[in-house]
Amino acid sequence: KPLTAIAxxxxxxxxxxxxxxxxxxxxxxxxxxxxxxxxxxHVLLHTAGFSKAGLDAPPxxxxxxxxxxxxxxxxxxxxxxxxxxxxxxxxxxGGWHVLGQAVLAASGxxxxxxxxxxxxxxxxxxxxxxxxGMPAAAFARYRDEGRLAPLYFLPSxxxxxxxxxxxxxxx
Length: 171
Known about the structure:
By secondary structure, the chain is mostly helical. The chain has 6 helices and 2 strands, in the order ααααααββ.
């Protein structure tokens, strides 16, 4: 999410986008179901009115590209939950996908959004080992080199808040 905000800022600095531009200027299919007046700023501020959009897209296990396309399509076809600019509600998933697609359109970049972020945000900052959607070959190389940290997941049904981490244990 912070990387997407940086990418939006790059487009603004380059004169290819403004905060008050409608998202539909860059992603025409987003204008469906009353979303034509939603601006880049609305999405960044979580006041765009479609906070639940994209939550029902299939999981990333289908592949990053399929997940991107599914979430984007569901976000574009979603209806507004409230008028743009009237309510603040965290846009968990769909907002970031549509902003990423707007960055791709504004920049003219033809690759994936993850590749855009790697080439235009991460690598210029020296974050050469950072990815948004790590390619399988890089994953295998880092795994073989012992450079991947294990991930630990809590069963969501049993997790309770607050979750505390003490001496390496999570409770």
